[in-house]
Write a structure and sequence with these properties.
- The strands form 2 sheets. This protein has a 5-stranded parallel β-sheet with strand order 3-2-1-4-5. Strands 6-7 form a two-stranded antiparallel ribbon.
- With 296 residues, it is of the alpha/beta class.
- It is built from 9 helices and 7 strands.
- Helix 7 links the parallel strand 4 and strand 5.
- It folds into 2 domains: 195 residues, 5'-nuclease (Rossmann fold), CATH 3.40.50.1010; 90 residues, no CATH class.
Length: 296
């Protein structure tokens, strides 16, 4: 990936919004919206992507409402402790109320960012079907019919990029989308929103010195960050993925290694800096499993 910002034009796939938990007004997506609002970036989106995000928000809302109901049932004893902050879980929460708030934040993001809705009617469908029958990106795997929405979206935004003579950043966590981007010279793939934010911040002439200073400080603090991560991991609780199959318990965690895997600067000023940091952690989990079949 180039370390220089090559375009201000960007398309963000649903998978990238999902990886940021659809927090449109906070963290990386909030910073992205700030850059879009100040016209340092220009966002392309399609109605297909909008509808897909709305469908995901509804699904997440319904899933969260079910999770709250389960917690209310499993933790019924906590009704005896109204003095504790966690007692708030017993407030009634409906999926439609959760979805309404999430939708409002998404609509606010679209409005503030001045997102340009690209019409897919201008896409030549024969190109999409040709890629489908040849199993070319983004069509891949056994269930390639499900890639049709992505194929039309990609063709639409790629056409805008080509017609305007501007390179387009495609931000996506989808491997098939990445393969598609690699076939065209006018598209650049980024996996994370904060990858783009890092490029934008470092491009600003007036921020070069603050960025340089912040990077030097972060380098000095890396050992402290790793140690802090170790402490947080050590005090965390861990559960088995096979909890539904076995009556098991993780009674000990050994941290074999912790390292900084990825770091991006997403905002900086003379007095403040914010980084997005990913850690790679290798753990050894010790299980205790009740084996009822072989017990005497």
């Amino acid at each position: 990936m180039s370390t220089e910002l090559e375009s201000r034009l960007v398309f963000v796939d649903t998978s990238a919004y999902e990886s940021k938990n659809y927090q449109f007004n906070e963290h990386a997506l909030g910073k992205l919206c700030d850059f879009l609002e100040s016209e340092r970036l220009h966002l392309l989106i399609t109605q297909i992507t909008i509808n897909e995000i709305k469908a995901h928000l509804l699904s997440k809302a319904e899933e969260s409402a079910r999770a709250i109901k389960k917690i209310q049932k499993d933790a019924m004893f906590l009704r005896n402790t109204p003095e504790l902050a966690c007692h708030g879980i017993f407030e009634k929460v409906k999926a439609e109320d959760i979805n309404k708030i999430a939708l409002e934040k998404f609509e606010e993001f679209l409005d503030k960012s001045s997102a340009e809705i690209v019409d897919i009617k201008n896409v030549d469908a024969s190109i999409v079907f040709d890629k489908y029958f040849k199993s070319e990106p983004p069509f891949g795997g056994a269930n390639k019919k499900s890639e049709f929405p992505d194929a039309f979206v990609l063709e639409a935004v790629a056409k805008v990029s080509k017609d305007r003579g501007h390179t387009l950043y495609v931000i996506s966590d989808d491997g098939d989308m990445e393969k598609y981007v690699d076939t065209l010279d006018n598209l650049i793939h980024l996996k994370r929103v904060d990858d783009l934010l890092d490029l934008v911040v470092r491009k600003e002439e007036e921020l070069k010195e603050p960025v340089k200073f912040a990077d030097s400080i972060l380098e000095q603090l890396e050992d402290n960050l790793i140690e802090s991560a170790r402490e947080i991991i050590s005090s965390s609780e861990f559960y088995s993925d096979e909890a539904n199959e076995f009556d098991d318990e993780i009674y000990q965690i050994d941290i074999e290694s912790v390292r900084i895997n990825h770091k991006n600067i997403i905002s900086v000023s003379d007095e403040h800096v914010e980084y997005e940091v990913d850690f790679e952690v290798v753990l050894k989990a010790h299980y205790s499993i009740a084996d009822y079949d072989r017990s005497p």
